[in-house]
Amino acid sequence: MKKSYYQPEDLKKFGKINEWNEALGSKFFDYYNSVFEEGSLSAREKSLIALAVSHVIQCPYCIDSYTKDGLQRGIEKEEMMEAVHVGAAIKAGAALVHGVQMMSRHDQLSM
Amino acid sequence: MKIKSLKARQDSLAQTEKQLEILSGGIFKDGSLPTFKEKVKSSNLPAVRPTALEILQINVGYMCNQVCAHCHVDAGPDRKEIMTHETMEQILTVLQSNTIKTVDLTGGAPEMHPEFRWFVEEIRKTEVEEIIVRSNLTIILANKKYHDLPEFFAKHKVHVISSLPFYKRGKTDKQRGDGVFDSSIEALQMLNKVGFGIAGGSLELDLVYNPSGAFLPGDQKALELDFKKALKEDFNIEFNQLFSITNLPISRFLDYLIASENYEEYMHSLVEAFNPMAVENVMCTNTISVSWEGYLFDCDFNQMLDLKVDASTTHISEYNTDVLSGRNIRLSQHCYGCTAGAGSSCQGSIA
Question: pLDDT grade, residue B2 (50/70/90)?
Fold first, then answer.
């Protein structure tokens, strides 16, 4: 058995998901590819959104993929870092906004 | 950072046998990845064969004023290999007696060849329709004697194709050396001034983008839009087309891939991105590459790997169209670089 839950080479094997259930796997990959096509948002914008989300969900495979994808699209490191901060800010805000619940609960229980 | 050529460093990768050994060993030997030939065959594609010859790409020597980190020629100021007058005469004889549409001059910096201008003038006297010069741009500003190159190019209706890795300073200088970006911008402005790259004009100026690292180029059209917008807004520069070119895993780029531990992942990326549509348009089908010594190769990359054409005549002095059109093209795993994604050639995407 491998000593770590995450194996970098597993990313290359992502397509193997189809081997055990092609019907559902194919639906996923078709959907995934459609999502990232040029649309009302550019493929470049979608790549940066994907990079930000990758950090928020802390998916190492996704971070590897979308850092490389960004480089291929000519996205610069400054843009990548700003996108990561957008994700991080939303995540921090999501934690912090619960502070209002804490304050309400506190006040409700206090004399 | 100043770097030297692999040859000057006496690096083992300066030996072409060593490069070919790496390209055939490891992941391609243990079956992790198919060889290029196997991949073409398993994709039910016909073998890569020559079609009508259109382009004669001539490497006039490895001398260059720059030392780019990714250079597949291993060119630089320390390289002294240079084409002789006799070889140039032999090429002119071939151009006079054969129908060849395009001559593509490359190097090193081809302009540094002492007989460069004479050679261009002589080629112009033949039936060749198009003369391409692959200019690194900075040469125009490198010495006073090169300052009038834009006028020379214009006079002889040369099609200028120039490398500019990125439209911003950082990535360009990292790949090609400090100060390269500023010189390149100034040279582009000089070329625009004499009419190159202006929409609707007849003087062509194309730019070449190649990734500054172990990743593949993105969509050529999208990158072209980014380049055009940025160069126009920031420097009032115009150009015709952007060619995005994949870095092939040979010479200094191979050295970089190995040293940075990116080699295997890069080869996986190339193989995964294999595009059958690109195979039929690879440039070795319509191009012959001539080395500074006058030897013939299927492409510039095979030239750097010293894989001479697989034919009974391998030198420009015994050039024979029929013999060459019947040859087998010599393939190795670097060929995946030309078939990845939208494909890659000296004229950019091919699929």
Answer: low
* A76 lies within 8 A of chain B by CB: yes
Please judge whether B218 and A73 are an interchain contact, meaning their C-beta atoms are less than 8 angstroms apart.
yes
- Answer whether A72 sits within 8 Å of B222, measured CB to CB: no
pTM of the model: 0.86
Mutant choice from B167, B220, B262, B265 vs A, greatest count of A C-beta within 10 A: B265
Cα separation, A72 vs B212, in Å, equals 10
> Hey, are the CB atoms on A72 and B218 less than 8 Å from each other?
yes
The radius of gyration of chain A's CA atoms, rounded to the nearest angstrom, is 19
Taking CB atoms and an 8 Å cutoff, what residues of chain B touch A61? none
Inter-chain contact B226–A68, Cβ cutoff 8 Å?
no
Q: From 1.20.1250.20, 1.20.120.330, 1.10.3720.10, 1.20.1290.10, which CATH number describes the A18-109 domain?
A: 1.20.1290.10
| Residue, of B168 and B341, whose pLDDT is higher | B341
| A15 inside 8 A of chain B by CB | no
